[in-house]
Amino acid sequence: MSIYLIRHGQTNGNRDRIVQTPDTPLSELGHQQAKQLALSFQHIAIGNIISSDYIRTQQTTAPLRAIKQSAFSLQPLLRERSFGDLRGKAYADITPDIFAEGYAPPNGETHPQFIERIKLAWDFILATYQNTAGSLIVMTHGLVLRELIKQHLIVADDMSPLSDFQNTCITEVDGTDKKTVLRLCDAQHLENKDVLGTAV
Known about the structure:
alpha/beta, Fructose-2,6-bisphosphatase, hydrolase, Rossmann fold, six-stranded mixed β-sheet, single chain
């Protein structure tokens, strides 16, 4: 059994390089990616799906939930880092490096606050997995995934990202030790042109 850490599908904000808001929905391509993602889990026993409560993550889980009929719940700890007043602005129009560790976005989360929340999120993920019969899917966001991997997981030196946190990329964690990354940022399912309703 495994823990699957997954980034949501594409949004227009991803495409246009905009700091996103909680209510940013998936783009048309994002919905397609969500269906391709779901197909890749057709033959994997999933006991539970937990998701950030943002619209884009919920929409990404919808095709998975349709075919897996797994337990499902929303978890605010899995939200993307809040950049406060910068949300809705284009990256090109923001002067400071918002990802610098010392930067504190106005009315947003500082880097230390974000790291502390990620620790709580990982503790929640582990507790949920312990009570799950089957594998666990965790639907979240790019910055959350980066910190989960950096702070809490073991990645082999010879393992390189397959897609550099592409939308709907899958990071698979060994369910035995709950530390070892088996697949890092794998988005090979996006090469499957079938979608739910048309696959044979």
